[in-house]
Amino acid sequence: MTMSSHNIVMKSVKIAQLKSRLSQHLREVRAGETLTVLDRNTPIARIVPIDSADDVVITKPARGASFPGKLRFPAPVKLDFDVVELLLEDRRRR
Length: 94
Hints:
- This protein has helices at residues 15-20, 22-30, 83-93; strands at 2-4, 9-14, 34-39, 42-47.
- The chain is an alpha+beta fold.
- It has a domain at 2-47: YefM-like fold, CATH 3.40.1620.10.
- Strands 1-2-3-4 form a 4-stranded mixed beta sheet.
- Strand 3 and strand 4 (42-47) form a beta hairpin.
């Protein structure tokens, strides 16, 4: 679907179409086209080309920083009660 106003042409794509032809749509955006993403004919997002004047800066991680995949998470907390039972009790009270 293509919509146009007095000086802008905007193409609309549904989510399934965007997913199935993502590379093609991204080439169109790279060429300067703006895409509106629709969820059941309701606009939910807009994909626009990056303006060269935008302040998009990509930096490398600081020296010595851990990779996200190598981060260690704390041990799980041991509780003296059943969390699911608390949730169900709270819902019953409402």
